[in-house]
Amino acid sequence: MALLKSAKLASAAIMLLTLSAPSLAESTTIADRTLSLDHQTFRYLSAGTEGPPIVLLHGWPQSADEFREIIPELSEYYTVYAPDLSGIGGSTAPGQDWSKEALARDIDAFINALELEDPLIVGHDIGGMVAYAYARLFPEEPLGVAILDVPVPGLSPWDTVAMSSHAWHFDFHKQTGLTENLVVGRQAEYFRYFIDSTAANPDAIPDSAIARYAEAYGTPERLRAGFELYRAFDEDAAFFQSLNEPFDVPMLVVGAEFSTQAALPAMATSYAAQGATDVTTLAIEGAGHWLPEERPQATIDAIIGFAARLSQR
To answer: Could you tell me whether strands 279-284 and 144-148 are parallel, antiparallel, or unpaired per DSSP bridges?
Structure first.
């Protein structure tokens, strides 16, 4: 790691204590951009022009917009990129493949096209699965990977989670055609219900955010893409179970108090069993599943603290 990058990251950890997130949010311009490649188009948010790159990967039923609360402060130290996943929002999905391996390869194409070096990859929910797949497929590329509040298919405690009442939507989303027909035209109502049911602080996700997410899945094709993320889980489980070679990319695994916090030890053990040698866990108190929106400052602190530690390696 270059000394300049180390200095910037160390400075970020110190300066974070003195910054006011509201004033940054008001003054920071978040650009809404499009990247057109030969085979695919990505819509992404970006902010910041200096500092190392950080790539933020969203979950379901969200889009890149879920990170709007944390992008301004992160952009003080990083160049931030947050793409819509393939088929969702403004990103196309020419391969019609929503396995996490395929999505990770799409993200690799995105990162290569922007010529990002040593990116820090942060993924929430489904985005966390994609982030882990990317790091396993391209271990020489990322500075590190942070996985926010999600287990990975095929790795403990996935089976326990999948059989719990909290995962009722897994089977519902797998009903090809039926799910789309029931939800189409009711995206906002369904997303509001779903987010409220897994949030500790549902008021932190306003109706304006729900409207943005409903728009991101507003066409039948985009809505299907979101459900296909779940229909690929069996394929994903086989893929992740096959990855057991030594893996030294630093990992930060974050659990929300009212979501996956209790599962953090099992997740760390499972990653280690698959060859991971550098796994740190962190719990964020007072949060449900939607960490970047429910506890934005704590999420920022976790990311910057992790990056600062990596810069000292």
So the answer is: unpaired
How far is residue 281's CA from residue 203's CA, in Å, rounded to a whole number? 27
Average pLDDT score, the chain: 92
Rounded to two decimals, the pTM is 0.92
Q: Quote the CATH superfamily of domain 3-311.
A: Alpha/Beta hydrolase fold, catalytic domain (3.40.50.1820)
**Alpha helical stretches, state H, the chain:** 3-15, 21-27, 71-74, 100-113, 126-137, 158-162, 168-173, 178-183, 187-197, 207-216, 220-231, 233-242, 264-273, 291-294, 296-311
Domain edges within the chain: 3-311
Closest CA to 292 of 57, 11, 119: 57
**How confident is the model over 121-148, as pLDDT tens digits?**
999 999 999 999 999 999 999 999 999 9
